[in-house]
Amino acid sequence: MTDVTSTDATTTPWTTIPSPNQPFAPAHPAQPHRGVPGGVGTSARRPDGIPKVKGEFAYSSDLWAEGMLHGATVRSPHPYARIVSIDTSVAKSMDGVRAVLVADDVPGAKVYGMEHDDQPVLAWDVVRYHGESVAIVAAEDPETARRAADAVVVSYQELDPIVDPEFAISGDAPELHEGTGNITRHVKIRHGEQDVSAPVVVTGRYEMGMQDQAFLGPESGMVLPGVDGGVDIFVATQWMHVDRGQVAKCLGLPEDQVRITLAGVGGAFGAREDLSMQVHASMLALHTNRPVRMVYSREESFFGHVHRHPAWMEYEHGATEEGDLVYVKVRVLLDGGAYTSSSTAVAGNAGRFSIGPYECPNATIDSIVAYTNNPPCGAMRGFGAVQVALGHEAQMDKLAAKLGMDPVDLRIRNAMSQGSVMPTGQVVHNPAPVRELLEAVRDAPHRELPVVGERDVIDIRQLPGGAANSTHGEDVRRGVGYGVGFKNVGFAEGFDDYSTARVTLSRGAEGPIVSVHHAASEVGQGLVTICMQIARTELPVGPAIVLPADTQVGSAGSSSASRQTYMTGGAVKQSCELVRSELLDRAAGHVGVARAGLRLADDGTIRNAADGILLDDVTELLSTPIEIEREFRHRETFPMDPERGQGDADVQFAFAAHRAVVDVDAGLGIVRVLDMATAQDVGKAMNPQQLEGQIEGGTSHGVGLALMEEIQVVGGKVRNPSFTDYLIPTVLDMPTVQMTIMELGDPEAPYGVRGVGEPPSISSTPAIAAAVRDATGVAITRVPIRPDDIVFGA
Amino acid sequence: MDFLQPTSLSEALAMKAERPDATPIQGGTDLMVDINFDRARPSATIDLNRVPELMDIEHVGSDVWVGAGVPYLRIMRELQSDAPGLCMAARTVGSPQIRARGTLGGNLGTASPAGDTLPLLVAIGATAEVASSERGRREIPVRNFIIRPRHSALESDELIVRVRVPKARGPQQFGKVGQRNAMVISIASFGLAFDLDQRAVGTGIGSAGPVILDAPEANAHVAEVFSTEGLWDSAAPLPDGVAKRFGELVGQAASPIDDVRGTARYRRHALSVLAARSLKWAWNEHRETTKGTRA
Ligand SMILES: Cc1cc2nc3c(=O)[nH]c(=O)nc-3n(C[C@H](O)[C@H](O)[C@H](O)COP(=O)(O)OP(=O)(O)OC[C@H]3O[C@@H](n4cnc5c(N)ncnc54)[C@H](O)[C@@H]3O)c2cc1C
Q1: Which of B10, B23, B65, B110, when mutated, tests ligand 1's pocket best, judged by the most ligand atoms within 8 Å of its CB?
Q2: Is 0.80 topped by the overall pTM?
């Protein structure tokens, strides 16, 4: 099959995709795609594309079952309080209410968690964050359920919330979780010499606010009580097997009585890794013996999932006069909120990637995550690497300024490359084209931009503020900034990371058919399409279908860490290859030729070099189907040692760079991002169109984080749980995005692929912050950048 | 919830008199959001979309009467020359979808100090005509329409019928500040209107107080400088410092607070900047057009 997947040796490994509305000649011609139609490397159509555009796609909130009840959740209005009593009598007596349950009604374990079982299914005794679940209700209609939830009387004795993570870990604060000192994890990395000095030193403190994943499909799902006393759960989730383990424990059921099927997912970005309504709806379904659906409202959704950790970062960079990094000292403090979620892994990432994709012989890194009474934080696109990228990139600019160097030159001078050593001591074995990415964005053409300054013909739509008519060019300053970042693909630090795929080749009504079954979540990223493409490429004998993801097949791991194309794609490829091998065995026997030298060609025929086509059609080999289910694992990773943080913790690194061009109305502090040029090494562009979607989407997350997206928490209370006040970029805030896509294959990965989902959200934010600094001369140490920060120079 | 659907204004007013608890709905772009967030649970709604009298735009003498149910999109299309500032304000509202549904009546009815048409309506001295079946019609200056956030001067049996928009007698400007380039609630907003006949300036300040404010001292300052410097007649360039001083006085007239959208300090600052810029834009535009007529 190598003829299908190998790239043409004469083509360059990267393509430049111009931004829309701004045609210019690509620096390199797009790579010709070869191989089977709809195979790997083509922009195969996604099966969910048209239904989604037409509004016909069934999301998890659209589920329906005969006799279904509706669930609602009672949530704490306080960030920290003792629960004195819960009176459910009024709610229970309401017409149409079928169940009101509290912590005592949880049949099994009363706490759950991804990393530590520390989060109550329903709080008892104490609530630790604003919005924590206290009771659940099922009723005949959603309105009654909500009213009943309002009628549950919880009496609280308010406690002083611990809202400052620095205070939380100071030793003076009461412990939110016994024996922790409120430190969820402290990652220490000690690389090279610890007591070095350097002639040029820059220091800085940086801060990142709490971003939300802001997916559009709120938490939702439906649970059917099973005849065996178990439950059938249909839910929008990221990792159904880990859901299953937690749900089974909390329900006191064996795992095989908890069956999960993926329902239509309206975005995830990390927010669906932790449980939301899974246990609650299951409890209500078991209690009432009726199907129960729960759909969070938009407001509730802001309380129903974890957010990106806010971060406070202190940096010190030491360099030679020539601009070579000598040492970096970093302290990152993350606010993990009330429960652990995936905080320990986020802190690990924040530590390992804290100096950025640079070579530095000496590093002292402390990454600490704290428990507080703020909303729990956990997984979100970029996972730890996003926070520190703001810091390391701001520092590189500061250092360049101090040295009088060009900021890109300084970065290139220190850029990591293949063979570089991470602060963990891990050698980067695979291509690390940091220099090439920086050069690509630096050299990307500048699109024609509106002229800055007061002018005769004014099109306010092109200016900061747009139709709001707040400037006609006054105080508008142009700025350019750069950012580069990286993170790991796949799970790290010794986690047994695998995915499972079952591939069946059978005889359908119209010939052979390939069906792929896995439990990986299609969260909008396009995994189903990728799996179809892989099946078509590896088994080009008939149509390929991907079955609904459910727990009837082994775990696929989470749709996170940019890992599914690598991992589940790898599992599908591996199982397809085994099916193909069995098919060739059968062919050899059937035709009566030697097995050696037999191959399945792209046109679905079986050939060997000597005789050419031996079999036109494999249908006759499929009197019994061929079915293979196997687990696929990436190379083993290892823990970091607790004192020095050394260890080969990661399997693959993914890199991206951005150049941002902005106009800032310095008088009002309003920013407009005009253009983003980005370059990313993707290993292999499996589906170019979907790839572009990931890059644009990740960039828009970065634009949002740089300029507007923040959950405002004051005294532990969330103040803006709505899309009225939690702002995400609109189409008019989104700049044009021009991309340079490099395909430097990772030889260890299937098709050479590198995870692509997260890198664009890492380097975009610091590039915009740098561009705003460049435009205004204001230090900009915090994102999202508020108008105040620019106007009053924070 | 009862859903009432009158087909004439008199029928609507009769329904409102009979059901003072009923909430009118026009574009629904505010009310439906409130219902969705569970901030409103009306016992009854009166759908005004079949009341033709609310959809009229009528030119009477020096005024345009804009029906309470006229959506922003129509305002922008039909009132460019008579109410340029109102068109600018309408253009800043939400998105194309919202501008196709949202109305002046709704903007007034919501009685939010962040309603984007209101500062301009205050600056030009517009009035809201309201009616009840029992007492007939009365006019309320938009300046006095909001009593406190989300509470208007409307009686429980009254509906807003139309808005009297004095035709422009000079250049007008409206601008707002928000943290994104579209679909954003104002952190602060500012409307400005020159009345060249009366040799006066009108202002309106949004999102910087419990109600829409104006800045009488700022207005007076400009009028006075213009008189002493003879600008009303000469249309000469703005003397140095006028715009800045005007901005400062507008900033001082505001009484902003800190909230999720911005700080009081920023709001005051932004209003000063916006006001100074608006004054320049308006005056420059006036100078351009006078040049044009003279040539
Ligand atoms: C996404 C989005 C973006 C928005 N952006 C903006 C913005 O940028 N700027 C802005 O100012 N607003 C904005 N809004 C708010 C809203 O669109 C405006 O306030 C609009 O003018 C409301 O008009 P409506 O006809 O939709 O009002 P409705 O929702 O129908 O009614 C609003 C209120 O007015 C009352 N009312 C309506 N008509 C009458 C009447 N004739 N007599 C008495 N009471 C009446 C209703 O009872 C209700 O209380 C936005 C709303 C949304 C959903």
Answers
A1: B110
A2: yes
